[in-house]
Design goal:
The chain is mainly alpha-helical.
Length: about 500
């Protein structure tokens, strides 16, 4: 405890509120990121199915998902822009010194946001207005634009973990910058693919969870079955892949950021035959309380043999490593992420067994309860991943080169606390409005389905979102007061 208190006492007063503000905005923004990155791909998979099989249910689902995609993207742009401003406002030391090295990643992300906004607008506008094949082809660049945005932000973050692509001048500032080397750092590949697959899994389980809830409430029609099956299948296929990628990034941290690995695994002294702790708490004297201890297992995980030497936290001075509290936070976040991932693998195996061996969906209500919770659990796992990455890197904002305390703004701490309170209020309004809009959209879709179900005998979703629209007879006024060549929309997105 003495070390922790000393480090906090030496830190600027602005450090705590600045970190809390950044943590809050990042944690809330990342809730939207999975849908922003992966929902375009999931929507286009459903769209392709609808075109290939001439399936109006699949096309209707794709159209409705595209509307959700547009709404969440609009909110995501707002929260993402706030984060971009916070880098300059809260961490001027970072941007002033190192912005010329790793700032290209933020530039790439900005262009990706712009491109994705244009493509979403075209794709959303194209329903009922473009030929089916043309419309689908115009939507194909959407996933690439989303991946480009992820590329930009992950390039910047991976550089902060393994900085390279520059030389330090006599004044200690970077010069002779090599852009490609700064973009493609040793941690970029493991971080990027781990992140992208995590987004796909999270979005797939989140979308499928909506229809799993409907299934549990008795909505067993083809609309809900297809809405569940396509995104859940995609997520289930990539869940085991993510387990392998997670092991790969942990091994990269072991080699490239050994002190962060030590914090994540609660390794106090450098040694071989290091035990693995599942949860547990690290104390400032190096002792660990609670948790489940598995002898030698940490060395086995790191190097496949019990004799693998694992670097401990005491290999560096106390002010160059996370505190015991920070190490415990990173360790718990990592373990919780692994536990959630393991449960999702079991759920995916259950689904795969029924689909491959029995050629049908699981029938147990417990499966659909698990599927309904899988989306929320995946979001929690994503949050835990970022906590592990950022808290485990303490006290460095640029690993090995600049501490967070050296980068923080000189703005008075009182002003930062007030700013945090205002941001919380604004974000509650923003996310409350997003939820209200999504619920209103859902209600409108259900009313439209119910109205059509009462007007004719076929299923309410048997209408296709493609034209041609009915022509208005000459001399008759257009319905709904419109001036176009067809009747007004029927309310079924």
């Amino acid at each position: 405890m003495h070390t922790t208190v000393t480090l906090l006492a030496d830190a600027p007063a602005q450090l705590l509120p600045a970190r809390q503000l950044m943590a809050f905005t990042l944690a809330t923004h990342i809730i939207l990121v999975p849908l922003g990155v992966a929902l375009p791909l999931i929507t286009l998979v459903m769209h392709h199915r609808g075109l290939r099989r001439n399936d109006p249910v699949a096309l209707l689902l794709a159209r409705r998902w595209s509307a959700v995609m547009a709404v969440q993207f609009a909110v995501g742009v707002v929260t993402g822009t706030v984060l971009s401003f916070e880098f300059g406002l809260l961490w001027p030391g970072l941007m002033g010194t190192w912005g010329g090295v790793f700032g290209i990643g933020f530039g790439v992300e900005a262009w990706a946001f712009f491109l994705e906004a244009v493509l979403i607008a075209i794709y959303l506008y194209g329903w009922r207005r473009l030929k089916p094949r043309t419309h689908f082809l115009l939507g194909l660049p959407l996933p690439a634009a989303a991946l480009l945005g992820a590329f930009g932000i992950l390039a910047a973050n991976s550089w902060m973990n393994t900085p390279q692509g520059f030389t330090l001048g006599a004044d200690g500032k970077p010069e002779d910058v090599h852009i490609w080397s700064a973009l493609f750092t040793p941690m970029f590949g493991p971080q990027y693919w781990h992140f992208v697959v995590a987004m796909l899994i999270t979005a797939g389980y989140t979308v499928a969870g909506v229809y799993a809830v409907g299934w549990l409430r008795g909505r067993r029609d083809r609309y809900h079955r297809l809405g569940f099956t396509v995104p859940f299948t995609l997520a289930a296929v990539f869940t085991p892949v993510q387990f392998v990628l997670g092991d790969s990034i942990a091994r990269s941290v072991f080699h490239k950021q050994p002190v962060k690995f030590a914090a994540t695994e609660l390794v106090w002294r450098t040694d071989t035959h290091v035990p693995e702790y599942i949860f547990g708490r690290l104390h400032p004297d190096g002792s660990i309380s609670g948790g489940i201890k598995i002898p030698q297992f940490d060395s086995i995980l790191a190097g496949f043999t019990p004799g693998t030497k694992v670097t401990g936290l005491t290999s560096v001075p106390a002010d160059d490593r996370p505190t015991a509290t920070q190490a415990t936070i990173a360790h718990w976040a990592f373990d919780l992420m692994v536990v959630i991932g393991s449960l999702l693998i079991l759920l995916a195996l259950w689904y795969g067994w029924c689909r491959l061996r029995r050629r049908r969906l699981p029938t147990s209500p417990w499966f659909f309860r698990g599927a309904a919770c899988a989306g929320v659990a995946s979001v929690v796992a994503v949050e835990c991943g970022w906590i592990t990455a950022e808290v485990g890197r303490q006290p460095w904002i640029v690993y090995g080169h600049m501490r967070i305390a050296e980068a923080v703004t000189p703005t008075r701490s009182t002003s930062l606390w007030i700013m945090l309170g205002l941001v919380i209020v604004v974000y509650v309004f923003i996310f409350g409005s997003l939820l209200a809009v999504l619920l209103k959209m859902r209600t409108g879709w259900r009313l439209a389905d119910a109205r059509r179900a009462g007007e004719r005998t076929e299923e309410p979703e048997a209408d296709t979102p493609y034209g041609p629209r009915s022509r208005v007879p000459a001399g008759d006024p257009p319905s709904g007061g419109g001036t176009g060549a067809g009747p007004a929309e029927d309310g079924r997105p």
